[in-house]
Amino acid sequence: MRGGDVAAAAPHADEQAGIEAGICPLCGGSNQCAMAAQQAASGCWCMQADIAPAALAAIPSAALDRACLCPRCAAMTAPTTPPAA
User: Fold this and answer.
1) DSSP state, residue 40
2) How far apart are CA 72 and CA 49, in angstroms?
3) Dihedral angle over CA of 53, 84, 66, 6, nearest 10
4) Across residues 75-83, what is the average pLDDT?
5) Name one Pfam family in it (predicted).
6) d(CA 29, CA 69)
7) Whole-angstrom Cα distance, residue 66 to residue 70?
8) Cα separation of 67 and 7, whole Å?
9) What is the largest CA-CA distance in the chain?
């Protein structure tokens, strides 16, 4: 999905910004990210998925390269309302 390594992102800065690597920044649900679960990126669902360009464009700038989309939001098959801050 992206070239960045979610697991390598600065966790303390992300926690302070309210960004969790395992949470979809669009719907607030689990993103099922392998890297956020400390697993190999090659096994992540997103490596075989087509990500909707509109979904990528909807990611808040604070979450870029810090939290991945869930499969439904990546396909734009779910409502994309950001979680309450």
Assistant:
1) -
2) 11
3) -100
4) 64
5) Cys_rich_CWC
6) 9
7) 13
8) 9
9) 32
Distance in angstroms (rounded) separating the CA atoms of residues 79 and 76:
7
What is the C-alpha to C-alpha distance for residues 37 and 55, in angstroms, rounded to an integer? 22
How many C-beta atoms surround the C-beta of residue 70 within 10 A?
Answer: 24
Q: What is the reported pTM? A: 0.68
Spatial separation of the C-alpha atoms in residues 16 and 19, rounded to whole Å = 8
Measured between alpha carbons, how far is 24 from 6 in angstroms, rounded to an integer? 12
- Tell me the mean pLDDT in the region 20-45: 94
